[in-house]
C-alpha cells in the first residue's frame, strides 16, 4: 500500500503542494456515477491512498490540515452513498423465513456479546419486515435502516471476518439461494483488529475490500422477492411439500405457524402460480399476497365535468388501443357529490403506461395522473384481515355480505337449507356488470356507484306477487319492493344499510314508512341502543329509537348479538327490523355462516295487524270492586311452604286485576271519534240555509284590510286589492259563493310560505332559535273572513264559547281577565280565605291541535253541515314551503294544528277547548291558550284537595283530546296573608310534583302570593330603563327632534311599559308606586330639557 501511495504522490506532485493534490482528487469524484458498491470502493481507495501520503508530509501546516479536512468530507459523502446503496439492496433481499434470524445474527456477529448482536439483528429484522409489508413507505424504511447502519458503524465492531463468515455459510447446505445472495452482499464488510472504542468511519473504510469483492451484489439485485403462501389447517405437511416440489420442479420449503397455518416459500413466481393453482384445484383454504406482474394500473383523469359519461371515456380509451377494466367518478363522502375526477383501472402491460400521453378525451383537454396509494394497509374484505387482498383469499369469508361475489356458493346452499321467502342483503359490493341470480328467486339490488363497498339487494321467491319501488335516500342505502298478497293490503319490504359514519335522516325513513300502511324495514343500521343492543349506544341508535317511539312502530330484534368484531370482544346487535302496523314477530340470530355478522331470521304473521293506539277512558266502580274482592279470596289462606307463597301471590294478583276489569267500563275515544267522522262523511246531509256573500260584504272586507301586510304565495299585495274595480269584486263574490255552495276551500289557497326570523339574543346557528311566520294568500283570507263571520254567529247562537274565555272576543282583553283574578284573590283576603291557583302552560297549543277531534266537536255542537265540510276541506291537505330570500325549499305537509296566520285559527282553538273541565269549586280563567284555575276556601287542605281533583280531571281531558301540558312551566301559588312555617303538600300532575311558588307571571303581570306587586314594579322599572337607554339618542337633551316627536315616542313606547295593568297594581303600596313615578318624572324632565 505504501508503494502505491508513493506512486500517486509522485504522479500528482503533492509533496510540493498538498492542497493541490487534495483538490485534484476531490474534483475527480462524481457521486452521481456511484450506482453500486464497487464504484464507491474505487473512490475510497483513491482517497485512502491520498490521505496516507499526506500524513507523511512534514512539517504540518494550515494548508495540509485543510487538505486532509477536505478529503475527510469527501470520504464521508462516499461512505454515506455506499451505505444508502447497501441498505437498499438489503431491504429488497431480506425474506422473513425460518433462517432469517440466524442469518442476521451471523452477519452482524463479532467479538462482542451475543445478546448485543441478537438484539441488533432482531431490530433489523423487524425493520425489514415492516418495509416488506408497506411498500409505499420504502423510502422512509430505507432511511431508518440507514440510520441503523450508521449507529452500528459508530458504536462497535459488529462485522465478522469475511473468510470465516464464508466458510461458515458454505457448510450450511440447507440454505436457499436468496440467503446466499444476501450473504455475499454482507461479505463486503471485513473485520478489523481494532477494539470497538477505536473503530470509526475511516478505520471501517480502510478495511473494505476492492471492487472485485463486491461483484456479487449484482446477483443479489437480480433476485426477485416472491411472497409466501399461507394454508389453513394442512394435513400431512411433509407429503404436501413433496407434492408441491414435484409439481413446481423446485425445492419447496415451509414451516408451521403457531395458529395452525403452514407458511410456504415459493422460490420463483412460476412456482408461486403453480402452487396457487394446486390449492384452488384441491379446495384448500389459503391466502397470499399479490405478485408485482399481477398488479393493476390505476390513474386519475382531471379536466372533465362531474356528469361526464364514463362510457365515453371507456370507448375513447379502447379506440386508442387501451383495455380499461373499470371507470368511475370519485365521490365526496361528506357532501355525497362527485368530484371532477375519474378513476380508470388498466391491466399492468407496457401499453397501459402510454395512457399518460393522452391530452384530449371527447374534445376536452385532460391531464392524467397516477392514483395516490392509500396510507392504510390493504384489507381482505372476506375475512376482515389486513395486508392482503380479498381476491387472493379462499378461506371461509365473513357474512356481513362484504363482497358477495366470493360467496355465491355459500348463499346458494343457504337458500337451499333455510328456504326463506325473502332474503335481504347488505354490503353486496357489486358492480352494475355483476350477476346475482339464483333459481326460483328474483333479485333486486341497489349498487353503490361512487366508491368501493356498500350496496343492498333483495331476493324474493318468484311465486310471490311483487314489484320494485325504488326510494331515493342519501343517508342510507336501500332496496325496496312492494308485495301484493291475496286478501291483503300492499306491504313494503326494504333492505337497508347505514354506513358507520354520519347520521341517519328520519325524513328519509318517512319515505319508506309512508309508502304503505304496512311496512317492514330490515338491515344493518349500524345503530346501537340499550333497547336492542348490550353496552353503550350511539347517536344513530338514539335517532332510530326515538323515531320508533314517536311513530307507533314495532322494533323486532334478536336477543342474541348479531355482530362479533374480529379485533374486539364486545359483540353488539346492529341487524334488526322495524315493523309498521304488524304485531310483533320473532327474530333469531342464526349461526349458520362463520362471520362477524350473523344472519337474522324474521318470522312475521302478515295476517295479524297491530291495532292503533287508542286513548282509553276507564271508569271503575270501586264499591263494586270492593264487593267482588270480598268474595274472591279467603281471609286465612292455607300457606305451608315456599311454593304455596308463590301460588298465593299469583292468586292475589289475578283476583285484584279481575275485580278491576269487572268493575270498570272502558271507552275508546279514538274509535268513537273516527267512527263518527266516517259516518258523517259517508252519509252527508244536504246543506240548507247557506248564507251566501254579496259584493257589499266583499267591499267592506277589502276596505278594512291593511295595505302594509306582506304578500302571500300568489304575490298579490293588499294594496292592489284595495284598488280593484267593481267587476273584479263581483268576480271574487262569485268565486266565494261557489265555494260555499260546493263546500270547497281551494287548494291553491291552502299553501303557505314560511319566513324564518331569528329570536333576539339567540344563537342563529340553531334552527330552534328562529320564529316561523306563515304568509297566506290575501285573496284566500277574504274567504276565510266570510267563513269566520258565519261561524261566529253559529257559536253565539249555540253558546259554544264559554264565558271564562276572554281571548279573541269583542269587548274582552287581558286586563279584564287579570281584574277577575285579582278581585277573586282580594275578596278572599277580605273574608280571611285562602286562594290557591295553578297556572298551566299548554305546549304548542295551536300547532298540535287534533284535526279529527275538532271535527268531532263541530259535529257534536251541531254546526251547520256546509261549514263543517268546508272546515274539513280547509284543514286537510295543507302544505307549506320555507322561503329564504328568493329561494323556496321542498313542499312539506301539515298533519295537525290550525294554520298559522289564518284568521280562523283563534276561533277554532276556542271551540276545541270549549269543553274544558268545569266544577263549582274551581274558577277557570282563559285567555286563548293561557289557562289558570283558582280554588278558594277557609283551609289550605280543602284548597289542595280541590285543586288536585281539578288537575286530575284536566289530565284526563288532555289525554283524551291530545293536548300537551308543559309541566316544567306550570306553577302553583297559594295566595294568603301572613306567614306560615308549615310546608304545603305538593300537587301531582302528569306523574310530576308541582311545588308551590311565591310568585307567577300571568298575562304579563307578576302576581306574588300577597298581591303587593313589588316584583312586578321592579321588573317594569328595569325594563323601562333598558328601553330608555335605547331611545336616549332620540329623546335626550341633545336630540334634534321636536318636543312633540319626543312626547310621541314617550307615549307610544315608554309609557305603556309602566302603565300596563295599572288598574290592578294601582292597589300597591305608595312606596312601591312612588318608584315608578320618580322614574317617569326623570325621563319627562330629560325630554322637556328641564333641570
UniProtKB/TrEMBL annotation:
Residues 111-121, 212-221 have a biased composition (Low complexity). InterPro entries: DNA/RNA_pol_sf, Endo/exonu/phosph_ase_sf, Endo/exonuclease/phosphatase, Pre_C2HC_dom, RdDP_mobile_element, RT_dom. GO terms for molecular function: RNA-directed DNA polymerase activity. SMART domains: PRE_C2HC. Residues 187-211 have a biased composition (Polar residues). Residues 111-148, 187-221 are annotated as: Disordered. Keywords: Nucleotidyltransferase, RNA-directed DNA polymerase, Transferase. This is RNA-directed DNA polymerase from mobile element jockey. It comes from Araneus ventricosus. The lineage of its organism: Eukaryota, Metazoa, Ecdysozoa, Arthropoda, Chelicerata.
Amino acid at each position: 500500500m505504501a508503494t502505491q501511495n508513493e506512486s500517486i504522490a509522485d504522479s500528482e506532485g503533492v509533496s510540493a503542494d498538498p492542497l493541490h493534490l487534495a483538490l485534484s482528487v476531490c474534483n475527480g469524484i462524481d457521486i452521481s456515477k456511484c450506482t453500486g458498491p464497487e464504484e464507491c470502493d474505487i473512490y475510497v481507495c483513491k482517497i485512502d491512498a491520498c490521505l496516507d501520503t499526506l500524513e507523511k508530509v512534514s512539517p504540518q501546516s494550515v494548508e495540509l490540515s485543510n487538505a486532509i479536512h477536505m478529503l475527510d468530507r469527501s470520504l464521508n459523502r462516499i461512505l454515506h452513498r455506499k451505505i444508502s446503496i447497501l441498505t437498499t439492496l438489503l431491504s429488497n433481499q431480506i425474506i422473513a423465513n425460518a433462517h432469517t434470524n440466524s442469518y442476521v445474527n451471523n452477519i452482524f456477529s463479532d467479538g462482542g456479546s451475543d445478546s448485543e448482536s441478537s438484539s441488533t439483528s432482531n431490530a433489523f429484522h423487524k425493520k425489514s419486515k415492516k418495509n416488506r409489508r408497506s411498500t409505499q413507505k420504502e423510502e422512509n424504511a430505507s432511511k431508518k435502516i440507514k440510520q441503523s447502519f450508521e449507529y452500528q458503524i459508530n458504536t462497535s465492531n459488529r462485522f465478522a471476518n469475511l473468510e470465516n463468515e464464508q466458510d461458515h455459510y458454505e457448510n450450511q447446505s440447507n440454505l436457499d439461494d436468496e440467503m446466499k445472495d444476501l450473504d455475499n452482499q454482507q461479505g463486503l464488510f471485513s473485520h478489523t483488529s481494532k477494539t470497538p472504542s477505536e473503530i470509526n468511519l475511516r478505520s471501517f473504510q480502510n478495511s473494505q475490500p476492492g471492487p472485485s469483492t463486491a461483484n456479487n451484489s449484482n446477483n443479489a439485485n437480480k433476485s426477485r422477492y416472491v411472497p409466501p403462501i399461507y394454508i389453513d389447517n394442512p394435513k400431512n405437511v411433509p407429503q404436501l411439500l413433496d407434492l408441491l416440489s414435484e409439481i413446481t420442479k423446485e425445492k419447496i420449503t415451509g414451516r408451521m405457524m403457531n395458529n395452525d397455518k403452514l407458511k410456504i416459500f415459493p422460490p420463483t413466481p412460476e412456482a408461486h402460480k403453480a402452487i396457487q393453482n394446486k390449492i384452488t384445484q384441491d379446495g384448500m383454504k389459503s391466502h397470499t399476497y399479490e405478485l408485482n406482474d399481477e398488479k393493476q394500473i390505476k390513474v386519475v383523469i382531471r379536466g372533465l365535468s362531474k356528469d361526464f359519461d364514463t362510457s365515453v371515456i371507456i370507448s375513447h380509451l379502447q379506440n386508442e388501443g387501451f383495455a380499461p377494466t373499470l371507470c368511475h367518478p370519485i365521490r365526496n363522502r361528506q357532501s355525497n357529490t362527485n368530484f371532477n375526477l375519474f378513476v380508470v383501472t388498466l391491466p399492468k402491460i407496457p401499453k397501459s403506461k402510454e395512457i399518460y400521453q393522452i391530452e384530449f378525451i371527447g374534445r376536452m383537454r385532460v391531464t392524467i395522473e397516477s392514483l395516490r396509494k392509500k396510507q392504510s394497509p390493504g384489507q381482505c374484505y372476506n375475512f376482515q384481515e389486513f395486508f392482503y387482498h380479498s381476491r387472493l383469499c379462499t378461506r371461509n369469508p365473513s357474512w356481513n355480505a362484504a363482497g358477495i361475489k366470493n360467496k355465491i356458493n355459500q348463499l346458494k346452499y343457504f337458500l337451499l337449507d333455510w328456504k326463506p321467502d325473502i332474503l335481504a342483503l347488505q354490503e353486496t359490493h357489486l358492480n352494475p356488470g355483476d350477476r346475482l341470480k339464483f333459481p326460483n328467486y328474483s333479485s333486486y339490488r341497489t349498487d353503490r356507484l361512487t366508491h368501493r363497498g356498500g350496496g343492498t339487494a333483495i331476493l324474493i321467491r318468484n311465486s310471490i306477487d311483487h314489484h320494485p319501488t325504488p326510494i331515493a335516500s342519501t343517508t342510507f342505502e336501500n332496496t325496496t319492493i312492494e308485495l301484493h298478497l291475496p286478501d291483503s293490503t300492499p306491504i313494503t319490504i326494504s333492505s337497508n344499510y347505514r354506513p358507520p359514519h354520519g347520521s341517519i335522516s328520519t325524513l328519509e325513513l318517512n319515505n319508506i314508512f309512508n309508502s304503505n300502511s304496512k311496512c317492514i324495514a330490515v338491515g344493518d343500521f349500524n345503530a346501537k341502543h340499550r333497547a336492542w343492543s348490550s353496552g353503550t349506544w350511539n347517536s344513530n341508535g338514539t335517532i332510530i329509537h326515538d323515531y320508533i317511539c314517536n311513530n307507533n312502530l314495532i322494533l323486532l330484534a334478536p336477543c342474541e348479538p348479531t355482530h362479533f368484531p374480529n379485533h374486539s370482544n364486545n359483540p353488539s346487535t346492529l341487524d334488526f327490523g322495524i315493523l309498521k302496523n304488524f304485531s310483533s314477530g320473532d327474530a333469531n340470530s342464526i349461526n349458520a355462516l362463520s362471520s362477524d355478522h350473523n344472519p337474522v331470521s324474521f318470522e312475521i304473521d302478515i295476517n295479524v295487524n297491530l291495532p292503533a293506539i287508542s286513548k282509553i277512558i276507564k271508569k271503575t266502580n270501586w264499591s263494586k270492586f270492593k264487593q267482588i274482592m270480598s268474595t274472591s279470596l279467603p281471609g286465612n289462606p292455607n300457606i305451608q311452604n315456599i311454593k304455596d307463597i308463590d301460588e298465593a301471590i299469583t292468586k292475589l294478583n289475578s283476583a285484584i286485576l279481575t275485580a278491576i276489569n269487572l268493575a270498570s267500563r272502558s271507552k275508546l275515544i279514538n274509535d268513537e271519534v273516527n267512527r263518527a267522522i266516517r259516518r258523517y262523511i259517508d252519509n252527508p246531509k244536504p246543506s240548507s240555509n247557506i248564507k251566501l256573500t254579496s259584493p257589499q260584504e266583499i267591499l267592506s272586507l277589502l276596505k278594512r284590510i291593511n295595505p302594509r301586510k306582506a304578500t302571500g304565495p300568489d304575490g298579490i299585495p293588499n294594496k292592489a286589492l284595495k284598488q280593484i274595480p267593481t267587476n273584479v269584486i263581483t268576480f271574487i263574490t262569485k268565486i266565494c259563493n261557489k265555494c260555499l255552495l260546493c263546500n270547497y276551500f281551494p287548494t291553491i289557497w291552502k299553501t303557505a310560505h314560511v319566513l324564518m326570523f331569528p329570536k333576539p339574543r339567540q344563537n342563529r346557528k340553531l334552527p330552534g332559535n328562529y320564529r316561523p311566520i306563515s304568509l297566506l294568500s290575501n285573496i284566500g283570507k277574504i274567504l276565510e273572513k266570510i267563513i269566520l263571520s258565519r261561524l261566529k254567529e253559529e257559536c253565539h247562537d249555540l253558546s259554544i264559547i264559554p264565558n271564562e274565555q276572554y281571548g279573541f272576543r269583542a269587548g274582552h282583553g287581558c286586563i279584564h281577565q287579570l281584574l277577575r283574578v285579582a278581585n277573586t284573590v282580594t275578596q278572599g283576603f277580605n273574608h280571611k280565605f285562602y286562594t290557591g291557583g295553578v297556572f298551566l302552560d299548554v305546549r304548542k297549543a295551536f300547532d298540535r291541535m287534533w284535526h279529527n277531534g275538532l271535527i268531532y266537536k263541530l259535529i257534536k255542537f251541531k254546526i251547520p253541515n256546509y261549514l263543517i265540510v268546508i272546515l274539513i276541506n280547509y284543514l286537510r291537505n295543507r302544505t307549506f314551503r320555507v322561503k329564504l330570500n328568493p329561494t323556496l325549499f321542498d313542499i312539506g305537509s301539515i298533519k295537525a294544528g290550525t294554520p298559522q296566520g289564518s284568521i280562523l285559527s283563534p276561533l277554532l282553538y276556542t271551540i276545541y277547548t270549549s269543553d274544558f273541565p268545569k266544577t263549582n269549586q274551581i274558577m277557570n280563567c282563559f285567555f286563548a291558550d293561557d289557562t289558570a284555575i283558582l280554588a278558594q276556601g277557609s283551609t289550605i287542605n280543602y284548597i289542595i284537595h280541590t285543586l288536585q281533583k281539578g288537575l286530575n280531571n284536566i289530565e284526563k281531558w288532555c289525554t283524551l283530546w291530545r293536548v300537551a301540558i308543559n309541566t316544567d312551566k306550570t306553577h302553583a301559588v297559594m295566595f294568603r296573608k301572613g306567614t306560615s312555617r308549615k310546608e304545603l303538600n305538593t300537587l301531582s300532575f302528569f306523574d310530576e310534583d308541582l311545588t308551590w311558588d311565591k310568585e307567577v307571571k300571568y298575562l304579563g303581570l307578576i302576581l306574588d302570593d300577597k298581591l303587593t306587586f313589588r316584583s312586578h314594579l321592579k321588573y317594569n322599572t328595569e325594563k323601562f330603563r333598558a328601553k330608555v337607554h335605547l331611545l336616549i339618542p332620540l329623546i335626550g337633551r341633545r336630540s334634534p327632534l321636536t318636543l312633540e316627536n319626543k312626547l310621541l315616542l314617550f307615549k307610544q313606547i315608554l309609557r305603556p311599559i309602566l302603565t300596563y295593568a295599572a288598574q290592578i297594581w294601582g292597589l300597591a303600596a305608595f312606596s312601591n308606586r312612588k318608584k315608578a313615578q320618580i322614574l317617569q318624572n326623570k325621563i319627562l324632565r330629560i325630554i322637556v330639557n328641564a333641570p
